[in-house]
Specification:
single chain; alpha/beta; 11-stranded mixed β-sheet; 12 helices; 11 strands; disordered N terminus
């Protein structure tokens, strides 16, 4: 099944279709899939493989995977399976495949996110870098003109200022790595003025100054901004906010995980948005899908990771 055929089966979401279309002509990358032992994870992997987005290596109980595929009438012939006894072993082995260069992407199966990220962040055997690991929702919101990046709504619970710096830089690098240009970054709070009683407004002001001093690069930052005047030009005009970011933000940086999670789920369930998920800051992009994700979202998550990995590969120095 071609990428075009897969996309044609989906409800029209132009922004995600553009992401999948951008992978045309790129070879699929070897992807270690940790514990794909339920229907949604295994089916999603196979559909992404058929669409040419990934070349999966399934890491999990071979008996479970084969029995599941048989019961669902899914074909897994020709796909490598590495047999391990349980989900923790699957996470560790999948990370090892990436660390040793046998895979270029890592994908979550039916294990818990904490289990996979625990293996990723192990100091000696994981995939850590100097950058803090963070999550980005790449959201296709119907009736909104641009793709919205929301960060961090899944990994960092209550990030401090330095963690927020890394969260923002990760999101900017993703946006640029997808070939979308220079992003407008809104640092969200409840209000658009600095208020000592609201700590997130202090952080927002400090982060903007960090960008002025070159500690955050590649994007235009403004904050604090409330959600309305971050995405609505009319709201920004009424509040008298003059900024290249206000009303036109493409990356929304939330104060903490609770705020981000509620924002993303509000958009998903009230505005019928789709939320592709990716974890950044490790040595490779990590495709972090949910059991509730539909085919369109899974495809977009794989496309985002694939495009970013190819972009990084193109920038690697040639070794003699």
């Amino acid at each position: 099944m071609t990428k075009k055929a897969v996309v044609s089966q989906l409800r029209q979401h132009e922004k995600y279709e553009r992401l999948v279309a951008a992978t045309k002509g790129l070879p699929p990358l070897a992807t270690a899939v940790a514990h794909p032992c339920d229907e949604s994870s295994l089916r999603g992997v196979l559909e992404a493989s058929q669409a040419g987005l990934i070349a999966p290596i399934l890491v999990g109980s071979q008996q479970k995977i084969r029995s599941l595929a048989l019961s669902l009438r899914l074909t897994i012939e020709g796909i490598d399976i590495i047999d391990v006894p349980h989900s923790q072993a699957a996470a560790e082995k999948a990370v090892e495949l990436v660390r040793t260069g046998k895979a270029e992407l890592l994908m979550k199966g039916s294990l818990h996110s904490d289990e996979l990220l625990g293996a990723v962040t192990k100091r000696e055997t994981g995939l850590r870098t100097a950058r803090r690991i963070s999550h980005v929702f790449v959201m296709d919101v119907p009736n909104h003109p641009e793709t919205l990046f929301i960060t961090d709504a899944a990994v960092n619970i209550a990030p401090d200022l330095q963690a927020k710096r890394d969260i923002i830089q990760n999101a900017i690098d993703l946006y640029v790595g997808l070939g979308l240009g220079t992003p407008r970054v809104a640092i969200l709070s409840a209000v658009e003025t600095v208020n000592p009683s609201i700590p997130s407004t202090i952080d927002a002001a400090a982060l903007c100054k960090m960008a002025d001093r070159g500690q955050i690069t590649g994007g235009e930052l403004d904050g604090p901004l409330a959600f309305d005047n971050a995405i609505s030009p009319e709201a920004a005009r009424i509040k008298g906010i003059k900024s290249p970011v206000a009303g036109r933000a493409q990356i929304l940086v939330v104060p903490d995980l609770e705020a981000g999670n509620m924002l993303a789920k509000n958009l998903t369930f009230l505005s019928r948005a789709d939320a592709a998920g990716i974890v950044l800051g490790a040595r490779v992009p990590i495709i972090l899908t949910s059991r509730a994700d539909n085919l369109r979202t899974r495809m977009a998550s794989c496309a985002v990771a694939m495009l970013l990995a190819h972009n990084r590969r193109a920038k690697e120095p040639i070794r003699a």
